Amino acid sequence: MQPLEPPKLADDCFALPPGIAWTPVDEALARLRTILHPVVGEERVSIADALGRVLAQDAIAARSNPPAANAAVDGYGFAHAATGEGAQNLPLVAGRAAAGEPYRGAVPRGHAIRILTGALLPEGVDTVVLEEDCATDGARIAFNGPVKPRANTRKAGEDVVAGALALPAGHALRPPDLALLAALGIGEIVARRRLRVGVLSTGEEVQADIGREPAGPQIIYDANRPMLLAMMRRWGYEPVDLGHVGDDRAALRRRLDEGAREADVIFTSGGASAGDEDHVSALLKETGALSSWRIAIKPGRPLALALWEGAPVFGLPGNPVAAFVCTLIFGRPALAALAGAGWLEPEGFHAPAAFTKRKKPGRREYLRARLDGDGRVEAFASEGSGRISGLAWARGLVEIGDGAQTISPGDPVRYIPYTAFGL
């Protein structure tokens, strides 16, 4: 049976209500969260190949963990009811219980058995005393009571019971999740197909051949495409390199057509504003599906959103710093929603500032930042969006709210490390 494919996004999904000039960051995020839904189908995947995959269906435990009661330590096992307070002396039965080598008989009441970590509790054993707490001559053991009932043992299914929910649909699988699935006997999962993300750079001033001598000082190397492709790869998506297109409307149309065939979503950089050479916006406008979101954010501002042959298009600013920040703030949660992983929000924390900043009201600002050796937040020396070196210097972003604010050294600021964005 062929799995069902999710529906496409509605043609007018990105349209803003009339009269909106500037969109606050929170409103833009809320709108994206409302309109986006998974656009990829399902397939069965072995857990050996499941890292980073998004569960399309709940993963249900095929067996309990642990599957049977067992010893949590190396020691000696016995029936608790046969012991009491003070010095205890119990004869040892012949043989032992070890992980993978269960003791086949029953341990008589008042006797003990040598038992190793992970071994199934033999019949007649419900409690284990630590090896270090015992004296033995090989035939008997002695220890001081009382011992707690069921001490140093694990109950069957005390972690997860067979038939219980192991991991919910929408969960993106990490290495520890694979350990859980394996322990529960889940060898295959039903996952969302990997989201395919096309990345396209535009602009006559951009040169895609990195290292080749540029034609003149007006030419810049394409910094956005390798950055964005690497981000998609790190987030577990399938990057689709759509290359670079100059200021050629027909070539851009062909490349977008190609992207819509090969990718589920397209990210472009450059040409997202409304100037004479902003061909991405102009071409998307011709289709009647363009919505230019002017977002109250710094760095950044213009975000062109559209559909091209059914594929959502995110038109990022051409500046690499702005493209990076907009991809983290808007692209990451949007892509997660499209991939079936739900809406992702970065988890930041507050730390004392090691900088001074006077901010005007109106736009939310993101500063390139990192923690110093004392746990204070340093900001990059320049806020200029052309200073790409600040992205590499930083280990995260400082988020400053929409209103006016004066920050002095020692004041708490919200710091969001790159790792909170999955980088």
Write the layout of secondary structure elements.
Layout: H1 25-35, E1 42-46, E2 59-60, E3 70-71, E4 75-78, E5 86-97, E6 112-115, E7 127-130, E8 135-136, E9 140-145, E10 153-154, E11 165-167, H2 175-183, E12 188-192, E13 196-202, E14 206-207, E15 220-221, H3 224-234, E16 238-245, H4 249-262, E17 265-269, H5 279-286, E18 291-294, E19 297-298, E20 302-308, E21 311-316, H6 320-339, E22 349-352, E23 357-359, E24 364-371, E25 377-379, H7 389-393, E26 396-400, E27 405-407, E28 412-417
Parallel strand pairs: 5-6, 13-16, 13-17, 14-15, 17-21, 19-24
Antiparallel strand pairs: 1-12, 2-11, 3-10, 4-6, 4-7, 5-9, 8-9, 18-20, 20-21, 22-28, 23-27, 24-25, 24-26, 26-28
